[in-house]
Amino acid sequence: MVLTRQEIKMNLRSLLIWAFCVGGMCLGCLLLYDSVRESMDGMGELFADMGAFSAALGMDKVNIGTLEGYYAVEISIMLSLGGAMFAAMLGAGLLAKEEEGHTTEFLNALPLRRGSILAEKYTAFLVQLALFHGICTALILCGFQCMGQMPCWESFLKYHGAVFFMCAEVGTVCFLLSVLCRKRPLGAAVGLTVALYMLDLMCRVVPALEKMKYFTPFYYCSGADIFSGERAGALGWGIGIGVTALALAGAFCKYRRKDLC
Amino acid sequence: MRNAIEMRELTKTYGRNTGIREITMTVEEGDMFGYLGPNGAGKSTSIRCLLGMIRASSGEAYVLGRKVGREQKEILRRVGYVPAECFLYPAMRVEEVIGYAARMRGMDCTGEAGRLCDRLEVDRRKRIRELSLGNRKKVSIVCALQHRPELVIMDEPTSGLDPLMQEVFFELVTERNREGATCFLSSHVLQEVRRYCRHAGILKEGRLVKTDTVENLIGTRLRRVRLSGLSETELPSVPGMGALWREGEELVFSFQGEMRELLGALHGLDIRDMLITEPSLEEAFLHYFDR
């Protein structure tokens, strides 16, 4: 696990910046709840009449006039999108940064199998993702504590578990990109994340695109859906698991045969 | 004597381009072997194939008796590699990089690393990004030698080192060689190969042109011939004649054929002066690269 530890050590600063920025924004928004509560009540009524737009944000399922509803609709987007961006950039950099920085030669002259390098890098990715979510979750819970209300634990844990898995899925796809590219595909990683998020919004608004929901992992980790008690379809989860497994297998297959320079 | 390195018909192609073609050669254990060739000849490609960084298109290679690709971890555990261009992690300190390389090998090389750093005058507290090319090279050398490998593969190891440090480096390598380590030195610098290596292989356009003892390679029949009083058109063609050029009034060419035939062909021509010399070290090697 020397490589895993080293990888985490090298990314620690970036991890802390991302975690405290995303978690801090979530905390800040939670602390602002009291001052925006009245307008949220009004907004809830206003959005209730906006049909598809309201559905896109999940406001037809939860009441954003409550702290939990406000968290499920407003704050969960920050965590989902911020977490996915972080995971995408982390995954995209894992191996491509070695080629970009020309340290591949140093790394591959050390007695490690290619598969071990990949496994250790991926473990580092999962540990960092877990740390990121741990910090964000702790800050969010601090926010709830300060507001004097705790969320429904079952929904809260389900939602955070789903977001963690969604981030792992996005990050794993970007990990595959990292194996395929010689330079860090950061643009592609961020673009992919935004595209998947937009696809989630679109398939909630446009009925003709409903089937597309299976192509975006944001669908099964919607805060509004989970906090309203709606069960995410098993197919969505299944596709998510399949995509993650395929991306990981693809990364292993490609990296084991890749010419490094 | 066992072979430390064995390449059998090793070929690497990149699309239409060929990196190396059907290289077959061996390096005996305990040897100090020079690997010579101009830029793009395929020296680094061969080395990367041996280290498993790139996959050979065909052929096979064995390092320390183990097959490249199949037993790579075991090979790399026993090999030290000094790359031509030393890229390390810029944010890390020198001691961290050296310690990291040792830990990856599951070894504590603190003592040996310290001795190497002292001899190469490496500042262990500096960050990699603060180091010059030469100092980064020294860090690579420490990483490659600290675990006392059985085989040291060096790809132009002295580039970037000042002459004094080059001496120190070769002292270290020679010591390791005397202790039994095999040294494989890829270099442009012919003097290095002549001075330190016992055997050498010469690579040209991806093919192994010649492999022999350095003594035999230098003791070639190649001669440099200088003639005064003749024009290019008057000079007869004799098998073994190499590139021809004019230096002032003299016609100069390299000759590797039968001297009797050359003298016979020149007999009766209006030659004012003639000088036949042994080639310089550079010429002795470089004629292998003549197109």
Helix content of chain A: over 70%
Secondary-structure element series of chain B: EEEHEEHEHHHEHEHEEHEEEHEH
Query: Which CATH architecture of the largest domain in chain B?
Result: 3-Layer(aba) Sandwich
* Whole-number total of structural domains of chain B: 2
Low-confidence segments of chain B, given as residue ranges, are: none
What is the chain-wise order of helices and strands of chain A? HHHHHHHHHHH
* End-to-end C-alpha gap of chain B: 36 Å
As for the CATH topology of the largest domain in chain B, it is: Rossmann fold
Count of DSSP E strands of chain A? Answer: 0
Number of domains of chain A: 1
Q: Specify which chain pair forms the largest interface.
A: A-B, 21 and 30 residues
Put simply, the count of helices of chain A is 11
Key traits:
heterodimer; A: 261 residues; 11 helices; 77% helix; B: 291 residues; Rossmann fold; 2 domains; four-stranded antiparallel β-sheet; 10 helices; elongated
Describe the structure in brief:
Chain A has 261 residues and is mostly helical. Chain A has helices spanning 2-31, 33-48, 52-57, 67-93, 96-100, 104-108, 114-147, 153-180, 186-205, 223-227, 234-257.
Explain what the structure shows.
The complex is a heterodimer of chains A (261) and B (291). With 261 residues, chain A is mostly helical. Chain A has one domain. In chain A, 77% of the residues lie in helices and 0% in strands. In chain B, helix 3 packs parallel to helix 5 and helix 4 packs antiparallel against helix 5. Helix content of chain B is 32%, strand content 31%. Chain B folds into 2 domains: 216 residues, 3-Layer(aba) Sandwich (Rossmann fold); 67 residues, 2-Layer Sandwich (Alpha-Beta Plaits), CATH 3.30.70. The two termini of chain B are 36 Å apart. Chain B is built from 10 helices and 14 strands. In chain B, strands 6-7-8-3-9-10 form a 6-stranded mixed β-sheet, sandwiched between helices. A 4-stranded antiparallel β-sheet of chain B has the order 2-1-4-5, with helices on one face. Chain B has a 4-stranded antiparallel β-sheet with strand order 12-13-11-14, with no helix packed on it. Chains A and B meet through helix 1 and helix 6 of A and helix 2, helix 3 and helix 5 of B.
